[in-house]
């Protein structure tokens, strides 16, 4: 169709923006303007693709001068359209937050000139993964994410960040090697890596070989998605990163792995014998992740473990392999991207207001910062699945699908999902109680030296238009019986970015009905891949 060329824009626009921001590395205002314009345009393109794929079915575009089906293909359907829209919105508002913060802890001497181009490369990699029509292009997407992720994780150069980044890179390189092996084995078995062609050829491959290929791909994508027992790297990597970086990682990167599992499972292995295995892994991921979350004293690590745990909900729906289960999983992915991102951003605001993310060192924030308390409360209740939020809707959809499927494993997952929700609520309530509700512990000393922090506009803030904190001379004060909170004024962009993501998550709750209808249609499309194949392959190539 004439508008198929639009498929290139979610990838090309961020890459072009990355090049422009790299050239303009000495001009922060230009970098900010280009980055925001590119990402805002990406949101518009995602809306258009979601609308067109819903009306007309899958859209495919062959790139390069190679004869079909030897070239690179980009494909959009309802699932990829939804993922593109949610990810584009989240990436845009996280950047707004980062600008308000001073671009990823800029006061620590981070190499800020590379932040914008690297962030845009990350955006291009996410979009390319959702549009990839062949396994090798999907591999390229993961490598783009790996490159950008390592740079963003290690911004500032502290020892903790370098160690966390090194662990992340080693795990990612191992999964990339396994992915290359899986691609080579797939090509040897089927003579192609194009997903549409593989859907036609793999049923003719020996069942043992096909099972081995499926296990290899599930292992690779399971590492990317932080599925238990391949999730130990995540709680150590994400909390050490700058807040905007950990927010976008937590919201998006694991979901790219989940998306790849959905795409390959239902397009390449629709009659797989491994669905029970997937449900079992989902069960373990839920329980182990949430038990880790309950035991954490820090908000970032608690959220990192809940991230692992709630990947299990998505595997629950995937493993059911029914329309209802897959629809609920798709809905839950969209919900979790926004909620998890919002919570990490708000944790950054908590750290700025209270001076820490360790709950024993916090207190009294509800009285001192009621807006911040509300911003945390809404996505926290959403994550716990409290009605009427989208988390409740998604979990009810999964439970209904599990009850309808009726197997012993499905019932075990139904019970585990309820237990996990209760433990999530406990972990969230514990954090709320310590950080917001209780008064801060009384100080032992009669006076405190607390630097009063006020906005100043230095060279960095002149360049990027954000507020940077400067210290006034310390003033001795006498603390009251409760706490003396360390409060700093925050740039409006920080509140604006976090609030926008929270508002978007509320929007998913308000429009949960239409969104679930859309996810039903996406599930139907995934379970009947004929339209996908016809959109990608010419008649003579099928």
Concise synopsis of the structure shown:
The protein is mostly helical.
Task: Describe the overall structure.
The chain has helices at residues 9-23, 28-56, 78-101, 115-131, 135-153, 159-190, 195-201, 207-224, 234-237, 243-268, 275-294, 299-320, 323-354, 365-368, 370-384, 390-405, 408-437, 459-464, 492-510, 512-527, 530-536, and strands spanning 59-63, 72-76, 448-450, 453-456, 468-471, 475-477. With 542 residues, the chain is mainly alpha-helical. The strands form three sheets. The protein has a two-stranded antiparallel ribbon. A two-stranded antiparallel sheet has the order 3-6.
Q: What labels describe this entry?
A:
single chain, two-stranded antiparallel sheet, 21 helices, mainly alpha
Shape: globular
What is the percentage of strand-forming residues?
Answer: under 5%
Class inferred from helices and paired strands: mainly alpha
- State the end-to-end distance: 19 Å
Secondary-structure map:
Layout: H1 9-23, H2 28-56, E1 59-63, E2 72-76, H3 78-101, H4 115-131, H5 135-153, H6 159-190, H7 195-201, H8 207-224, H9 234-237, H10 243-268, H11 275-294, H12 299-320, H13 323-354, H14 365-368, H15 370-384, H16 390-405, H17 408-437, E3 448-450, E4 453-456, H18 459-464, E5 468-471, E6 475-477, H19 492-510, H20 512-527, H21 530-536
Antiparallel strand pairs: 1-2, 3-6, 4-5
Helix pairs in contact: 1-2, 1-4, 2-3, 2-4, 3-4, 3-10, 3-13, 3-19, 4-5, 5-6, 5-10, 6-8, 8-10, 10-12, 10-13, 11-12, 11-17, 12-13, 12-16, 12-17, 13-15, 13-16, 13-19, 13-20, 15-17, 16-17
């Amino acid at each position: 169709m004439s508008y198929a060329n639009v498929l290139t824009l979610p990838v090309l626009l961020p890459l072009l923006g990355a090049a422009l921001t790299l050239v303009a590395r000495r001009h922060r205002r230009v970098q900010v303007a280009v980055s925001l314009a590119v990402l805002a345009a990406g949101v518009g393109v995602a809306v258009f693709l979601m609308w067109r794929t819903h009306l007309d079915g899958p859209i495919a575009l062959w790139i390069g001068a190679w004869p079909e089906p030897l070239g690179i293909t980009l494909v959009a359907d309802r699932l990829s359209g939804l993922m593109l829209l949610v990810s584009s919105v989240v990436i845009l508002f996280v950047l707004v937050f980062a600008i308000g913060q001073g671009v990823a802890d800029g006061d620590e001497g981070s190499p800020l000139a590379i932040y914008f181009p690297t962030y845009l490369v990350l955006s291009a990699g996410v979009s390319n993964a959702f549009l990839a029509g062949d396994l090798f292009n999907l591999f390229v997407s993961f490598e783009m994410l790996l490159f950008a992720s390592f740079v963003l994780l290690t911004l500032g150069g502290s020892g903790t960040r370098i160690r966390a980044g090194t662990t992340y890179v080693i795990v990612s390189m191992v999964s990339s090697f396994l992915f290359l092996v899986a691609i080579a084995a797939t090509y040897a078995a089927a003579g192609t890596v194009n997903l549409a062609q593989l859907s036609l050829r793999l049923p003719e491959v020996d069942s043992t070989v096909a099972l081995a290929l499926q296990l290899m791909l599930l292992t690779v994508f399971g590492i990317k998605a932080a599925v238990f027992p391949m999730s130990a790297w995540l709680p150590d990597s994400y909390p050490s990163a700058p807040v905007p970086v950990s927010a976008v990682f937590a919201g998006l990167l694991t979901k790219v792995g989940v998306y790849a599992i959905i795409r390959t499972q239902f397009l390449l292995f629709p009659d797989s014998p491994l669905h029970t295995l997937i449900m079992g892994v989902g069960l373990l991921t839920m329980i182990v992740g949430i038990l880790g979350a309950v035991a954490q004293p820090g908000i970032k690590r608690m959220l990192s473990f809940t991230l692992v745990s709630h990947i299990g909900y998505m595997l629950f729906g995937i493993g059911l392999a029914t329309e209802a289960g897959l629809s609920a999983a798709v809905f839950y992915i969209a919900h979790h991207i926004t909620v998890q991102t919002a919570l990490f951003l708000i944790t950054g605001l908590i750290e700025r207001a209270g001076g820490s993310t360790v709950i024993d060192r916090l207190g009294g924030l509800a009285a001192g910062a009621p807006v911040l308390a509300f911003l945390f409360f809404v996505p926290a209740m959403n994550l716990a699945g409290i009605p009427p939020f989208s988390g409740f809707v998604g979990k009810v959809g999964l439970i209904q699908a599990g009850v309808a499927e009726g197997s012993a494993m499905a019932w075990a997952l139904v019970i585990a999902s309820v237990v996990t929700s209760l433990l999530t609520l406990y972990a969230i309530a514990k954090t709320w109680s310590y950080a917001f509700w209780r008064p801060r512990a009384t100080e032992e000393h009669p006076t405190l030296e607390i630097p009063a922090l006020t906005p100043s506009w230095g060279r960095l803030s002149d360049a990027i238009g954000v507020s940077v904190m400067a210290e006034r001379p310390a003033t001795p004060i006498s603390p009251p019986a409760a706490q003396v909170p360390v409060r700093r004024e925050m740039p409006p962009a920080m509140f604006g970015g976090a609030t926008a993501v929270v508002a978007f998550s509320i929007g998913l709750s308000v429009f949960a009905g239409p969104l679930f209808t859309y996810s039903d249609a996406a599930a139907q499309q995934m379970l009947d891949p004929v339209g996908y194949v016809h959109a990608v392959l010419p008649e003579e190539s099928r």
